[in-house]
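EI: anyone free to look at a 215-residue chain?
SC: sure, send it
EI:
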Amino acid sequence: MELLQAVFRHCLSATARNGHDPYCLNMFLFENTENKAMTVTTTLLIIILLMLAMLIWAIQRIQLQNKALLQSERDVAQIRNDMLERESGFQQQLAKDIKEAQKRSNNMQRNVLKGQIGEQFTPFITDFPYNPSDCRFMGEPIDYVIFQNLHECADGNVPIEDVHLIIAEVKTGNARLNQRQKIIKQAIQNGQVSFKELRIKYCEDTEDMRVQVSV
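SC: here you go
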């Protein structure tokens, strides 16, 4: 501080020796110093304002990013909830469908079993029109071959004209003839029925067996 005062007094003395007014020089130096101070202050204020603006911009950007991140997390959570709800609904529907399918399968199996049992016991139903002893169960492709009055004719109780060969198929409910059964029915209606005697021939030399068909 003393050094600055000495320099200032030296400057005043030199100014006085050169014919200048020390007071005017003092004012000039004061004004110059004030201008410089204002310039520095203005610059500092501008820098501070710029820093504040950048800080506000950074804060707003961070807030926007946080908001976007929060919204993304909400969207992901909503999608996860939707997926869980859909999966739960799918599992419930699948369990329901499986249960219904099992029920239908069990019903079908029971119906098929009842049908098969019913087919084999048809000759023993009360109002069955033929003699059960004349019936032979095949099951596939036709249920029964009925030799009507065969036993009665063999015992001499009825003439040969009362003997009939009947191809019978047993159906229940709304069941219909399948394609093979329809073909058999049509072939019979067309008279494409015949009797064949198959005789097995055994060759002792070659040990072969052959079938001979006779009319």
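EI: The chain has four helices and five strands.
SC: 👍
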